[in-house]
Design brief:
single chain, about 375 residues, alpha/beta, TIM Barrel, two-stranded antiparallel ribbon, globular
Length: about 375
Amino acid sequence: MTRKVKYVIDVERLEQLPEEERKRLKKVTEKFAFRTNTYYNGLIDWSDPDDPIRRIVIPTEEELEVWGRLDASNESKYTKVHGLEHKYPDTALLLVTDVCGIYCRFCFRKRLFMNDNDEVARDVTEGIEYIRNHPEINNVLLTGGDPLILATFKLEKILKALAEIPHVRIVRIGSKMLAVNPYRVLEDEELLKLFEWFNAETGKKLYLMNHFNHPRELTKEAREAVTLVQQTGTTLTNQTPILRGINDDPEVLKELLEELSFIGVPPYYLFQCRPTAGNKAYSVPIEEALDVVEAARAEVSGLAARVRFVMSHETGKIEILGKTSELIFFRYHRAADPENRGKFMVYKRNPQAHWFDDYTQLVEEYKVDAVGEGV
């Protein structure tokens, strides 16, 4: 049975909100773009102003508080050609669209949805050529925006072009579509055939990197979509930031990690919320978030507990390892600068820190060699 999902881009058309509130929120959406849909709205308990699904997609006036910056990880530093970022030697990011199924209010790329932004390449030819000319790139992440918002024939062109590049072994698609509109999968047999072709015929592997932020997004329809994608031979994983009022409760996070592992979508990363403009109300201090992560991880099986808690910092992915009463421990999980690879860092604790840059009292740092000995 076909279900029509309609998109809503004008907050004043949200009939579930009182008219006065819609008018107040208009000034928020004039600064940060708004987009939702009828399926996702149906997951919201509109009688609860603190409903976690509502917090994900419905604007609040808290977003107008001055904090952070639009490009918190300085992604522009790693832009090599229009629409392509190359930060780590083996990985390239292609920004293939500036539209998503919904616009999460905490999005770290909300700058892409602003009228004066031109980072996304609607024609990826230049990016494909860059990848072809850099044999060290063995995996490509399609992102944006949400690549699954593209028509299937457009996604097919991109996948076929990448399939023709011998040194590209993996293509990852970063998407929240299974959470916000699973009918994108349930009602498009051609998309599933495309995924199956890529896995079966190209000698390469397709990964779908999902963004389930809260257990209530794992609906019957979402689980059905997960199963269909798995049947194409595609590997599914999940990543989410730790978000105030959404998943910063150990029981909620435990449920999310468990349910994902139960349906074969292993948790991949838990992110520290980036200090992006408008995001202050969603950010949990690092040391508090670490407590939440460890409390949840202690209650789940190893399959779910293998998730890593990291920051996508300008200098690389920094894993947050643990703390004592006085110290906190970090390690570069991935580093843009070869000099930082494997670096282990010990800082004095700062309970108010929301980002790596908030730690200034370095106690010790050293690198780890190939066999794990400090050097």
